[in-house]
Amino acid sequence: MSPTSNEHFIKASAKSARKYAYALCVLVTAIAGGWAMTDIFSVDGYTVIEIVLLFLFTLTFVWISAAFWSAIIGFVLLMLRRDPVTLKQALVKNQSGELDTRHRQAIIMPVYNEDTNRIMSGFEACIKEIEKSGNLAHFDFYMLSDTQQKPLIEAELVAWNKLIARMGNDVAAHMFYRRREKNVNRKVGNVSDFCERWGANYQSMIVLDADSLMTADSMLTLVKTLQSNPKAGLIQTVPIPIRQNTLFGRFLQFASSLYCPTLAAGQAFWQTDTANYWGHNAIIRIDAFMASCGLPHLPGDVPFGGEILSHDFVEAALLRRAGWHVYLLADLEGSYEEVPSNIIDYATRDRRWVQGNLQHLGLLKTDDLHNVSKLHFVLGAFAYVSSLVWFVLLLLSTIDATVRAASEDVFFTATHQLFPAWPVDKSDSIFALLFATALLLIGPKFLSLIHALVYRRYEFGGAFKLIISTLIEIVVAIVIAPLMMAYHAYFVLNALAGKNVSWNAQSREGRTVPWSEALKRTWAATTLAVLWGALTWYLTPLLFWWLAPVLIGLILGAPIIHYSSSLRMGIAARKHGIFICPCEVIEQPVMKTLRLSLNNLDKQSRFNKSVPALPAEKWTEMPIQCLRNRDKQTNPDNQQNSSKINPVLVDNK
């Protein structure tokens, strides 16, 4: 069969112009914010504290401006119904085109000490999607287990044999379960092991996480798009959270469903063929991955040395370094995931990501990385470092206000001065800057709301419920922001201090956090906030009121964590139409399959624990890349057959 039609071919025009235009918008906005703050501080000259405050404020203004302009661009493209990469009229990508049947594809799910029922049910749902599409013959499915706990190992074997029996011989012939005795190099080693043993049999692999769920349309569209673009090394989708029942989980699910399309479209516009990889719900060209993405251990100590923790960003950067294109399909629907259901579990996951993303900063000097790949590293790290910057800003502002409060005003600064030097009122400038900051932070939310009201309101339960839910989401985001700032700032300091992080299975199921755990995780922040508030109230009452929203969020940390994790409140919110999401208004068949499978698993009889057979290996070594100094590599842009390239000369030391 011939390759797929040009419908899935991606051609991005004016790539450099897009990046420069985006960067210019961000920098002009940040400079304007910095200039406004400079004007405010210029009244009495500049102290050392004010100079530091000005620098930190400008830094954070760059950060929020970057997100703001991505949202603006995405909003315009969505309203005009334009594809963010090609800029052509947006089409429904997942309805036409045929697979190039000369190649086979793999769908892999790496797992590590996960809930057995959930991973088997999710895997089954994805397999059935491909089976129903009529394309089963072109796919194989691998569950790649790194599970180390004996009870879970036995449970996986039992569940796998049950799954094989349910699916029948024809489907089972395409299903394989492999478990490593030792999880060397964690997920990186898990996927590398698959690639080296069986990767040569396949053109691509769709990587699923333990909580991933994808429709047949989305998976087939990924394959068609990869096949239609010979230079594409990786194509990332935008996974949307599903199956959330706690109040916090539903808040995240709603926010992602509403805001992600706008932000992702804007990012896809300026990233063009240098997008990022988020670790799952993506398709990867296997020969490109194997030739370009063997990850070494980095020299030095934590946080910059050791295993590469957040491997996905690095793998995308290495693919792009080798000349492969990396795309974000921002408008492809049918890609789902699950998220931690409470603030504590969410923060625990972020603790791992903090160290992994900080580690990327040590790779900025790696030879020949694309500048946009380096920008991904910087933005990923600053997503967490920004919390520490905001905390330091608040702390220095308190010190500055305290010093000013303790100082007497001097109106006559010269011996022979006719008129006093009255204080200059800059309140108008201060309020204008505050308004601009709020606009940058909250404006994108309202743009997403406008787009949803025009095109998607029924997916969120109607216009009224959508508007109310958005307003409540903004309030909830403001309330929990101080607590997340405190956690992230603490995590960054821990990582910089060299404290390593454990990488355990992620908590995914909904649970109400008990008071004891909530108090244990918040007492330090609460104590700090009480002391901070008392000091500012006594010395600078005006500053106290400015800090009140932050202090209240920290003081009420335990109640916020406890009640936001409530299943009862989450279910009540759904009953009253709050945080309704598209996945709940229209249940996709793949979600129904997952739900029914989870409900029926425990009703089945017991099966044996026999170890399933694996396909014959076709060993191909995956070379380790040099992330310091290395020679130039072959670029597939100059090659007739991109599947035959040898893109990297590696350092084999």
TrEMBL record:
<feature type="domain" description="Glycosyltransferase 2-like">
    <location>
        <begin position="206"/>
        <end position="396"/>
    </location>
</feature>
<feature type="transmembrane region" description="Helical">
    <location>
        <begin position="375"/>
        <end position="399"/>
    </location>
</feature>
<keyword id="KW-0812">Transmembrane</keyword>
<feature type="region of interest" description="Disordered">
    <location>
        <begin position="630"/>
        <end position="653"/>
    </location>
</feature>
<comment type="pathway">
    <text>Glycan metabolism; osmoregulated periplasmic glucan (OPG) biosynthesis.</text>
</comment>
<feature type="transmembrane region" description="Helical">
    <location>
        <begin position="430"/>
        <end position="454"/>
    </location>
</feature>
<feature type="transmembrane region" description="Helical">
    <location>
        <begin position="543"/>
        <end position="565"/>
    </location>
</feature>
<keyword id="KW-0997">Cell inner membrane</keyword>
<keyword id="KW-0472">Membrane</keyword>
<keyword id="KW-1003">Cell membrane</keyword>
<dbReference type="InterPro" id="IPR029044">
    <property type="entry name" value="Nucleotide-diphossugar_trans"/>
</dbReference>
<comment type="similarity">
    <text>Belongs to the glycosyltransferase 2 family. OpgH subfamily.</text>
</comment>
<keyword id="KW-1133">Transmembrane helix</keyword>
<feature type="transmembrane region" description="Helical">
    <location>
        <begin position="49"/>
        <end position="80"/>
    </location>
</feature>
<feature type="transmembrane region" description="Helical">
    <location>
        <begin position="20"/>
        <end position="37"/>
    </location>
</feature>
<dbReference type="Pfam" id="PF13632">
    <property type="entry name" value="Glyco_trans_2_3"/>
</dbReference>
<keyword id="KW-0808">Transferase</keyword>
<feature type="compositionally biased region" description="Polar residues">
    <location>
        <begin position="635"/>
        <end position="645"/>
    </location>
</feature>
<dbReference type="InterPro" id="IPR050321">
    <property type="entry name" value="Glycosyltr_2/OpgH_subfam"/>
</dbReference>
<feature type="transmembrane region" description="Helical">
    <location>
        <begin position="466"/>
        <end position="490"/>
    </location>
</feature>
<dbReference type="GO" id="GO:0005886">
    <property type="term" value="C:plasma membrane"/>
</dbReference>
<dbReference type="GO" id="GO:0016758">
    <property type="term" value="F:hexosyltransferase activity"/>
</dbReference>
<protein>
    <recommendedName>
        <fullName>Glucans biosynthesis glucosyltransferase H</fullName>
    </recommendedName>
</protein>
<keyword id="KW-0328">Glycosyltransferase</keyword>
<dbReference type="InterPro" id="IPR001173">
    <property type="entry name" value="Glyco_trans_2-like"/>
</dbReference>
